[in-house]
Amino acid sequence: MAKDLKVRSDSQETVTCDPEDDSLKDFLIPDYVLLYGSEVKQPSRAPASPVVVFVNSRSGGQLGGELLISYQTLLNKNQVFDLNENAPDKVLHQLYFNIEKLKHDGDSLAPEIQKKLRIIVAGGDGTAGWILGVISDLKLAQQPPVATVPLGTGNNLPFAFGWGKKNPGTDLESVKMFLNLVKDAKEMKVDSWHVLMRMKVPGDAGACDPIPPLDLPHSLHAVHRDSKSDEDGYRTFRGGFWNYFSMGMDAQVSYGFHTERKLHPEKFKNQASNQSAYAKLTCSQGWFWASLSHPSTWNIAQLAQVSILKKPGLWEPLNIPPTIRSIICLNLPSFSGGLNPWGMPSKRRLSGKEWTFPYVDDGFLEIVGFRNAWHGAVLYAPAGHGTRLAQARGIRFEFRKRATDHTFMRMDGEPWKQPLPKENDTVTIEISCSGQVSMLATGNHPSKSVNDPSTPRTPKDNECDSDEEEVVEDISEAQKKFGAANSFQLPEDFHISQVS
């Protein structure tokens, strides 16, 4: 009998496991599939649920490093990757190259692994978005579905698919339990949302990234210059998200949190301290008394002209109430730690405004506004929701010179300070749906599919709300449409330490 392995984590806890545990064979990928040119040694049976694991070892304080050790102990070390040392695009390109080569040579196991492969991502929402972008760029005929381990602060993406929002256990038994959940999880399609932004940048920034001194997230990067569309100092940036894009109040708080964490990482060692710091920032920035502490020029209606795409090719202006200071474009029913800003509209509202259930794969965003932090706090109440503005296939923001020179934006947990136009410049941001990714869902998850026959089509009476809305004012339509980019590729100088 093989000797038990002993593993010591940073917490000095000693754990043991049996490397010949039959239950783990369902997840193992042999070296000859992972490493090109390795000796072919086929296992006695094909794994039922082969996995490739990506861990952001810097997420969750010391939890990321501990989780990495546990996965490497239980599985083949060559199928577990530390994102601080291995770029996921290179890892997956090499894996699929190996599989295609083996299939060409007549290997019987390679097509089975390709068919059953599942991806596990351990990190914050930014890390999960990075991996989803890499998978999208591969343009595979059959995408591997992704399960997310909640190692961040908000953990909105894991919560949306039933994986929870609390940081997980990192011991071997906890990891085994998670692997078994991954094996039994069901696959769901989720819409991918592309963001295209066009703006003037300072100086001559060259052909592509980086563009100093812009403070954009690495999930939103420059496109190579187009002499026709990028004239007079204008540049085009593109990116993508799967959960949400937001602007205003919530993004400013998030930006403050991320800035403070970069300056003082020692203060942000666990999920509880991170959430406490987040709450303090919300108070200190005055968002509970926004009408007193912030100028009206920060209201969304005064910052931008907003248009929505209700039907293909048909853009129309979106009326934003004058008191709205935060706008959220939501794809999943999970925001700010698992809250649902859209809620469940009443049957009358569903019929009267032609609204539908908030599905994750129907090609529509739910667009919600908030007045202040007190307004956001209603999400903690039963049937609480923000100000529902629209459901749309796309949305466009056009910014011209206003009294303020910047605002704050956020995509899937990654915030930035967005400069606004000076003089006669224009900043245009367009969001549109393009393609889908595959996620793994477990348990009683809040995400619903339009193609799932078990998904209800009308709400139960106790799930609805009164759905009272505010009076809105007219906003003129933006002038110019930009098409969505077809890539989520990140710049070459990207580093994992810059995402959650």
Report on this model:
With 500 residues, the chain is of the alpha+beta class. It has 13 helices and 19 strands. The strands form 4 sheets. A 7-stranded antiparallel β-sheet has the order 8-9-7-19-16-11-12. Strands 15-14-13-10-17-18 form a 6-stranded antiparallel β-sheet. α3 (88-104) runs parallel beside α5. It is globular and about 65 Å long. The protein starts with a strand and ends in a 59-residue tail after the last strand.
Q: What keyword list fits this structure?
A:
19 strands; 13 helices; 24% helix; alpha+beta; disordered N terminus; 500 residues; seven-stranded antiparallel sheet; 24% strand; six-stranded antiparallel sheet
**Average pLDDT reading:** 79
Helix percentage: 10-25%
Distance between the termini: 42 Å
- In terms of DSSP E residues, the strand content is 15-25%
- Major sheet details: 7 strands, antiparallel
Strand-helix topology:
Layout: E1 5-8, E2 14-17, H1 31-34, E3 51-55, H2 63-74, E4 80-82, H3 88-104, H4 109-116, E5 118-123, H5 125-138, E6 146-150, H6 156-160, H7 172-184, E7 186-200, E8 220-222, E9 234-241, E10 244-248, H8 249-263, H9 271-284, H10 290-293, H11 300-303, E11 305-311, E12 314-317, E13 326-330, H12 347-352, E14 365-370, H13 373-377, E15 387-392, E16 394-399, E17 406-411, E18 414-419, E19 427-441
Parallel strand pairs: 3-4, 3-5, 5-6
Antiparallel strand pairs: 1-2, 7-9, 7-19, 8-9, 10-13, 10-17, 11-12, 11-16, 13-14, 14-15, 16-19, 17-18
Helix pairs in contact: 3-4, 3-5, 8-9
